[in-house]
Amino acid sequence: MHKYGLTSFLIFVCSFLVDAVAQPAAGWQETNINEVIYNAPLQIISGDHVSMHQLAAQNPLVVAFVFTRCSGICAPLIIQLKESLQFAPNIGNKKYNVLVISFDPRDSVKDMENMATRFNLQHEGNWKFAVTDSISRLISSVNFNPVWYEQTLQFDHDALLVGVNSQGFVTKKLLGLRNSKDIGLLINSINNVFSPTYRLPGQSNLFSCYNYNPKTGKNTPGLGMLFIALPAILSFSILIIIRLVSKSKSA
């Protein structure tokens, strides 16, 4: 009984720790929050030339990073965003514009105009399609790192939405295709409406349960996890000691 109990306990602890390391780092979405997005010069398909901060000052922004030759996530990202904005809760009185910007230096204003037409968004006043000649500095300011593959002529990249308020500060980042509720929270954040979040653990958080590494994008168990598991470990160790002592006395 003792052997099976110890084995079960070890399996539980190991599987818990492995799962913790393997989980995608939600903390990545909290990087660059409350930092100023780079004030890139933008060329809108309407012909306007405006900076990122000037556009955000008109209305806070939901920024979607795409490229027109994408054979993967870009089209689903725009379609999902378009649909989610129709059903997002409590955003009817909120101000926002959607800025769809290409991170591919090959894309032209005409390419972005064709993209807008393809999704029937060319006449939607609060949707802006744009290019910039400062894309490297812009994506760096939000920690977005697409990787180019020459073999496929495609970028390997995440589906990323970034919320920017009217002062040019990043308020929220969403990774992947998100539902209406998540989009609603992003719209609230760029309108300076409080929404629940958490602080990214830093070096001052000695007893954090997880330590987030922004370079690898992974979580590893921290000292806090040890302290949470310590009572169970001690209790189990005491039971083993009592059992061993009882066996030695009976012998």
Describe this structure in words.
The chain is 39% helix and 20% strand. It is an alpha+beta fold. It folds into 2 domains: 2-24 and 208-250, no CATH class; 32-190, Glutaredoxin. Strands 2-1-5-4-3-8-9 form a 7-stranded mixed β-sheet. A two-stranded antiparallel sheet has the order 6-7. Strands 10-11 form a two-stranded antiparallel sheet. Strand 6 and strand 7 form a beta hairpin. The longest helix is centred in the last third of the chain and has 28 residues, at 223-250. It is elongated. Residues 6-26 have low confidence and may be disordered.
Overview in brief:
The protein is α+β, with helices and mostly antiparallel strands and 251 residues long. It has helices spanning 2-22, 52-58, 74-87, 109-118, 135-140, 180-190, 223-250, and strands at 41-44, 49-51, 61-66, 97-102, 127-131, 147-149, 154-156, 160-164, 170-175, 210-213, 218-221. The chain folds into two domains: 2-24 and 208-250, no CATH class; 32-190, Glutaredoxin (3-Layer(aba) Sandwich).
